[in-house]
Amino acid sequence: MAKHLKLKKIKFFIIVVVSIMISSAIPLPDFVMQSNQDVYITSPAEGQVLSGVVDIIGTNEITGFSHSELAFSNAIGSMETWFPLSNTSNSVKADLLFAWDTTHITDGDYRLRLRVFSEDDSISEFLISIITIRNYSQTTIPSISATSVLLDPTSTILSATETPLLRPTLLPENPLALSSGDLAKSLIFGILTILGLIGISIIYSRGHRK
């Protein structure tokens, strides 16, 4: 009985070893994503703000090309959920991959991915980690504290107009105005006249008494 169990264990071990050898001999499809210099997107660029219909320009032409796929996902969160944009069996080089109507998508930040599948089932990928869709929300514009004036360099620059300095107009001399010298002369003349009149009146009164 013990010998019979030992033979079963040996057979089981042999079956397992043979199965491993057979499975390792069969070539499995290579689904590992790899970088390829012939797979890329030139437009839109990383971090670009998009609106309306956007032409996605790039290259998916590689040796053994099977088909390519464009997809997008939310920039924040898991990279497992992707929404396909196009799937084509046409290879292009530095040309239009897809015309993307971004008005069907909620404004926000997204990723954009190009995958190219080869005939041997390998995958080459190009990823834009962030692009921004802005169709319905306003883009933040930094406030400007001071008012800026833009001058057209082709226009004629006018010279500044100088403000004339206003000076008081000299009035003509008043013929009736008396200077300080005239006042002094008038005062002396008046005193002398009064003294003369007093002297005349004294002489007159003395002569009248005689």
Kindly describe this structure.
It is a single chain. The chain is α+β, with helices and mostly antiparallel strands and 210 residues long. About 13% of the residues have low confidence. The protein is rod-shaped and about 190 Å long. Strands 1, 3, 5, 6, 8 and 9 form a six-stranded mixed β-sheet that branches. A three-stranded antiparallel β-sheet has the order 2-4-7, with no helix packed on it. The protein is built from two helices and nine strands. The chain has a domain of 98 residues: Immunoglobulins (Immunoglobulin-like), CATH 2.60.40.
Topology (elements, then pairings):
Layout (H helix, E strand, L loop, with lengths): L1 H24 L7 E2 L5 E4 L5 E2 L2 E7 L5 E10 L8 E6 L6 E7 L6 E11 L4 E11 L46 H30 L1
Parallel strand pairs: 1-9, 3-9
Antiparallel strand pairs: 2-4, 4-7, 5-6, 5-8, 8-9
The DSSP helix count reads 2
- From the coordinates shown, what is the CATH architecture of the domain at 36-133? Sandwich
Terminal CA distance reads: 201 Å
Identify the CATH class of the domain at 36-133.
Answer: Mainly Beta
Would you identify the regions where 5 or more consecutive residues have pLDDT less than 50? Answer: 22-31, 143-153, 155-161
Strand content: 25-35%
N-to-C SSE string, H for helix and E for strand: HEEEEEEEEEH
- Structural classification: alpha+beta
What radius of gyration results from the CA coordinates? Answer: 54 Å
Query: What percent of the residues sit in helical stretches (DSSP H or I)?
Result: 25-40%
Sum up the overall morphology in one term: rod-shaped
CATH topology descriptor of the domain at 36-133: Immunoglobulin-like
| Fourth-tier CATH superfamily name of the domain at 36-133 | Immunoglobulins
Total strands: the figure is: 9
